[in-house]
## 1
Amino acid sequence: MTEPNRLTARLAQEETLLRQAYPGARIDRESLVVVLPGHRLPAGWSHEETDVLFPIPPNYPAGQPDNICGRPDLTLANGGTPGNSQGVQVHAGKPWLQFSYHVEPGDWRPTADPASGSNLAEYLAGALTRFQEAD
């Protein structure tokens, strides 16, 4: 199986797991991103919700996802810039405010069966913690 076909097959398996954990989430295979629409934000942010996105590396699952993005106009409730934000980036043809979020390399352990190793749903669960505290 060629590398693009392996990735396509892996993402099909992973989309099931992703939607079990986050029913509204989807994988955009063309842009290689995961999008979760309408994620509710706690107090302290300028908006009550944001769509969330993270890119899928082309060498996934060996390459782990990195960073997470929210709406480009997201600020702290007081108008301040959120900590660990890296400015507006373009993903899937749209602007997104990117936040630093990383999994330690030793903690990323994908297996042939996505359900038994590191996967996109697990990454999203961890990355969403970035929005738990407005700072």
## 2
Amino acid sequence: MPLASTLRMAALALFWGSGFLWIKLALTHGLTPAQITIVRCALGTAVLLLLARRAGQRLPRSRSTWGHLAVAALFCNALPFALFALGEQHLDSGIAGVLNATTPLWSLLIGIGLGTDRALRPVRLTGLLLGFAGTVLIFAPWHHEGLWSLPALYLLGAAASYAVAFAYMARHLTASESPMAMSAAQLLAATTWSTLALPAAGAFRPDATALLAVAALGVLGTGVTFYLNYRLIADEGPTTAATVGYLLPVVSVALGAAVLGEQTGPRVLTGMAVVLVGVGLTRRNTASRTRGSAGARDAGATGVPPRTATAGAIATADAAEGSTAGATQDASQGRTEGATQGADGTAVEATRDAAVVMAQGAAPAVARLRR
């Protein structure tokens, strides 16, 4: 892999994985969950609007498209962003990052329920069971000092919300030659949704640390990560980009321990490893099909490395968690295979396969951005 792509992947993992740290810092220095969600969406929208303008892309004009984007924005941005902030009021940022990695497991369950993912072979079933077993191990509800609580449900709800969004977008949002404009429109809709919580947002009394943290979350963790992910897919293909999702829990746990002094015991670390192994197993039967179909479709077309829709998100980060407005584009290809922000729409937005975002017509936009 070229050095530029390696550095881009490292920056992507750092920016996405640090999102949970920025949320925690913003919370502990004066911002409420609603305020964090609103500012994050607004700053991410501003970044993507600037990038879309630079690429010569325009916001959609169709009312039906805006309607679908509004639904996607609720489940892929406004709701999970708020739920992660609510959960991190009482749980560590590292735990939030690890649970974001469960998005592909929820996506697989949804695919089975909707009948869109019938290839539940033994290896994928094993992965699904392992993933949720790892989640149970993390929370240890059988221990008095376990982490099972309402905040834990908020975090799991955020990961599940990404999965719902990816399934919806796969059915209702079609491929577009303006992926950044579509993502900007989705975050704009998410900003509108989040402002509905203003009456309950509380007093605005952040200190300088909170302002810097939420600025980093919105600009770097939400806006810039889309562009980096977009370029990484164009240069190296979606399979390489999807591997970033597996780094996000590691980054979030490491930053939580180094910056915030969070104590992550052997049980949580073991649970994280089990979750990631489970996610990897759920992707085994889809990876070869993804690579094969991508190569056949793109051979000789644009000179851009083969690309396909790997529904994205860990996790959001953006996750995003999701990171994850850009998940609109990969979900639009009509696949929800394993979901991860990304999260397999991330990575995971790890996982969030961390919101891998490349629509069929994206190559011309990449060329314009490079110029």
